[in-house]
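Box 3.1 A note on notation
Throughout this textbook, protein chains are presented in two layers. The first layer is the amino acid sequence; the second is a token string describing backbone geometry. Keep the layers aligned when reading.
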Amino acid sequence: MTRDVDFAEIRPEGADDARAVRALLLDAFETHAEADLVEALRAAGDLVLGLIAEGEEGVAGYAAFSRATLDGRAALALGPVGVRKGRRIEGVGSRLVRAGLRELEGRFEGQIVVLGDPLWYDRFGFRPAPQVSCRWAGPNLLALPLGDQTEAAGEMRYAPAFDAL
């Protein structure tokens, strides 16, 4: 997909990557919840796109885009986005998100919703989504429209795997 000599190749995850992705997510987050979430999304067929940043030392980062609905229309949830502790501040996470958005452009039309730091996700065009209702509604719920979409509004339903969080 994309190659950057600074750190890694960014590519879609393959069938043989599950163990490495789990290890990365266990390193990147304080609990196993994100690793379990990705495995459940994958098992249910709700993982639309999983991207891996891979360097000489193996998997350096991961970003997941999964099925969701917003007011009954197709939407995507971005997350988790995880980067190995020793690789943070190198731009790995930003490159993964940008690569994912490029991959989805033209292939998906709808809202992409993320729960995260508004200051960090603003660089990709995500904006607060105060008109969206869901379990995680609030100032850290952000949306980005792809295609001819307007402001995000309505009830957000994540894939069932998120219910375990």
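The two ends are 31 Å apart (CA to CA). The chain has four helices and ten strands.
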